[in-house]
């Protein structure tokens, strides 16, 4: 069952990140853990807010876009709206930024510090409709683990 999988994953993430208050280090291990534990992915990582754009942060996968304008693409939209974006078919998302043409579905979750978006977790899959509500809930909780570790 997915909920049990994510409960276990989030316990592992909490243990992995315990005591790590460095954002780059924590995001690097976080993305590596997700990449090793989740299936049917081709990219997992972070974009970090720098002013009015998102800049590539720690990730696992192929070469990626360096910068994404705030409010543009799935990542920029998630950041600007401060809400998770779960996209079953990225080719149908208006303004999608194709960093990897093999990506067909995507989920992007804002990372917050003191209520403000400071980064986004971006996960891509070559499989259409890869992410469902259980994935969204589990991954949102994983991001809460990261936030609590980094920002208390």
From TrEMBL:
GO terms for cellular component: cytosol. Signal peptide: none annotated. It comes from the Bacteria. Residues 37-148 form the GAF domain. One of its GO terms (molecular function) is L-methionine-(R)-S-oxide reductase activity. It holds the Pfam family GAF. Belongs to the free Met sulfoxide reductase family. This is GAF domain-containing protein. It comes from Shewanella cyperi. The lineage of its organism: Bacteria, Pseudomonadati, Pseudomonadota, Gammaproteobacteria, Alteromonadales.
